[in-house]
Every structure is written in C-alpha cells, then in structure tokens.
C-alpha cells in the first residue's frame, strides 16, 4: 500500500514538473503553484518514507521478539522438565518413607504383645512373692520392698543433704 501511494505521489510530482515547465514563461503563477504542490508532495513522500522505515523497524522488533519468546519458552520447558524430575524423586522418597513407616508400625504391633506391661508387672509380682516365700521358709524376716520411685527419692534426698 505504501508503495502504491509512493508511485502515485511520484506521478503527481512528474505532472507538476511538466505543468511548471510548460507555464514557466507564459503563466508564472501557475508554474509557482505547481512547484509549491511538488514541495508539499515531497514532504508527504518524506513522511511516507518515515512511516515505512518505522514499520520495517517494528517488523524487525517483532521478529526478534518472536525469537526471544521462543527461547524463553524453550528454557521454561527445560525448567519444567527438571522440576518434574525432582518431583518424581520426591514422590519416590515419600513412597519409601511411607513404606518404612508402615513397616515400623507392623513391627511395633507384632512386638507390643510380647512386652505387655500388665504381664510384666504380674511376672514381677510373682517373682517378688517367690522371693518372700523363700525368705520366710528360711526364717528371715521380710524386708520391705521399695519401688523405684522411693529409691530415687532417697537418693535425691541424700544428694541434697536432707
């Protein structure tokens, strides 16, 4: 479109020059008017050339922006692939931890009945009773049995000088 307008303006300049040459001697006013029109047309052509130059620069900027956009998109894709790989590794670690936690729970459930606290206390009471029975049979006076807390309290009192 710019080229068509430029061609049209050049034809008008050529017509005005022809008109000015034809009227230079016979009608000076018409010749001057034709030359003024040429000046206006030349200014319009300069503006048109400026617009064309600006459009070419914009096209170049858009093309380079497209290249930059493609490069940014390619880098983004690479980063997303790396993140996806890291997430896969995290998923594997989480699955491993979950498996280990489940295994620990199963072991705890299996072992806990073996060490039931109530059974241990009953066994301890039976052992204490057997010890007392043996001492009574041997003729010894039974010693009072201290539980752990009383012994610890006495040790603390001794350490503090009470």
UniProtKB/TrEMBL annotation:
Keywords: Coiled coil, Endosome. Residues 31-65 form a coiled coil. Its main location: other. The keyword Methyltransferase does not apply. One of its GO terms (biological process) is vesicle budding from membrane. It is found in: Endosome. GO terms for cellular component: cytoplasmic side of plasma membrane; ESCRT III complex; multivesicular body. Pfam families: Snf7 (PF03357). Belongs to the SNF7 family. PANTHER family: CHARGED MULTIVESICULAR BODY PROTEIN, GH13992P. This is Vacuolar-sorting protein SNF7. It comes from Boletus edulis BED1.
